[in-house]
Amino acid sequence: MRLAVVGTGLIGASAGLAARRAGLEVSGWDEDGDTLAIAAERGACEPSPTLAGALAGADVALVAVPVASLPTVVHSVLATAPEACTVTDVGSTKAAVCAAAGGDPRYVGGHPICGAETRGPARASADLFEGATWFLTPLRTTEPERYRAIHSLVTTLGARPVAIDPAAHDRLVAVTSHLPHALANLLVTQAGASRIEGHDPLQTAGGSLRDMTRIAGANPRVWVDIFLENREALVDALAEHRRRVEQLETALAEGDAGFLARWIGEASGARRRMLETSYEDAGALHRIRVHVPDRPGVLAGIFQALGAARINVSDFDLEHLSPERGGTLTIFVTGQDDAAAAAALLEAQGYGVVVAPVLES
């Protein structure tokens, strides 16, 4: 299979790296020559100076451009690509681009659920799609062999393909992605705009605000377009959220402890179900918290020691407090044995360690 990547930012370059790792030929084109050059230097694709050149001989074209320009670019790719080329995309909204495809039987919409806080081909990774859900939105006119081609590509890149109607997709991601981004922005701007007896909430914020706002302030060039493209579904999700906030306000005003207990229990159960069903090996995932000093080489030493012990770190987060107080390093490790080994190793180095299963926290 020969893959043409149209748009070589983070997602496009990552797709190119993953495809090349799987043995596929990959060509690439980007209207930004500097972005294309970086992707090529990373080994994500063979660069082409023209869109037509990148598409020549391609079996599949993957369009990875911002959602505002996605319908136009997909339309251009369908008009330029050889008849044998199947076209897909990675846009986070689907209704507009599916409409722009005009019922072309060669088109299958797509959206990998694998967002990253970084951007650009320099941050691309062949592992970005590993285990991720990748929504596919075939049209009624999509030819079956075209769908099979994209399904095969998604599997090759390491993701799990899931078919869904384009309009249903947009309603779904409004709740699971766009609403959380909107609320993260609301929370941090509310805290930043207030003063409590002269105290700045942001200067005394604890882990709750930090964890709830990790995605706040994400790339506005991307997220303004996403919010506007999916505004109808997002407005509906915000209205439902407002209704639930009003329920909470009423319970607090009336001192309704029973409602609050049921509400917290429902949230606990929903979160557990999310972790158990949406994240591979979530039940075995452990969180290890370590207080670390603000000193050069500390993090490198920790990760080198874990690597030497063959302990795989699934993810990590660092909360820096101050040069004097250092910070809190949170490491996520899969498996009770590895978590215990990591804790013992860190304790032997003199660190205070707290370990907890993610699902029980």
CATH class of the largest domain: Alpha Beta
Please identify the oligomeric state.
Answer: single chain
Number of helices: 13
Tell me roughly what share of residues is in helical segments. Answer: 40-55%
What is the tally of beta strands? 12
* Helix-strand pattern: EHEHEHEHEHEEHEHHHHHEHEEHE
| Rg on CA atoms, Å | 23 Å
What is the CATH-assigned architecture of the largest domain? 3-Layer(aba) Sandwich
CATH topology of the largest domain: Rossmann fold
Kindly describe this structure.
With 361 residues, the protein is of the alpha/beta class. The protein has helices spanning 10-21, 33-41, 51-55, 70-80, 95-100, 144-156, 166-192, 207-212, 220-229, 231-254, 257-278, 298-308, 336-348, and strands at residues 2-6, 25-29, 46-47, 60-63, 86-89, 107-112, 133-138, 160-163, 285-292, 313-322, 326-334, 353-357. The strands form two sheets. It has an eight-stranded mixed β-sheet with strand order 3-2-1-4-5-6-7-8, sandwiched between helices. The longest helix is centred in the middle third of the chain and has 27 residues, at 166-192. It is globular. The chain starts with a strand and ends with a strand. The mean pLDDT is 90.
Task: Give a short overview.
The chain has helices at about 10-20, 35-40, 50-55, 70-80, 95-100, 145-155, 165-190, 205-210, 220-230, 230-255, 255-280, 300-310, 335-350; strands at about 1-5, 25-30, 45, 60-65, 85-90, 105-110, 135-140, 160-165, 285-290, 315-320, 325-335, 355. It is of the alpha/beta class and about 350 residues long.
